[in-house]
Amino acid sequence: MEEVIKKCVSILKEGKVILYPTDTVWGIGCDATCEEAISRIYRIKQRNEKKSMIILIDSAQRLPMYVERIPLIAWDLLSHVSRPTTFIYETACNLPQKIIHEDGTIAIRIVQDNFCKRVIKELGHPLISTSANVAGQPTPPTFDKIDPQVIAEMDYVVPQECASSTEFKPSRLIKFLDDYNFTIVRN
User: Which fold has domain 2-186?
Assistant: First the structure.
């Protein structure tokens, strides 16, 4: 796995795009601070650029780098999450505008998957994480269900043996409303 992590980091630093396993589904990803690579992901997915994308970070300590004001309840929820959960924060910062929703929010998940954590830590930046499908198509639950045309667009495809699971499902999605309240957008 060490060589695969080094390869991913090298490719991501070049502003390229990878297909990789996350703690939820197989994702198309890039360095979340590289606007050119982000634009390429939108093209690959044929996705409207007004739709924001999730970013992955490796630890809660990095959260203040990308969220200007973290709700008080966030720290409690983050310490009690046992399954992959993406949180939507109101005040994104230090990220390209094209991945921030037009209302200023950003969706961030602290990954639980060791492979993803290592790649993010070595890269030193968050990763874009968007499902490995064309916009409007179902999210592939397994690697073998990913459209070969999507795979062909990648600069690097992480070997399947690096995945911690063979069957995936999207993360729970929670949006913070204020310091003490949130809503579950997707369970």
Answer: DHBP synthase (3.90.870)
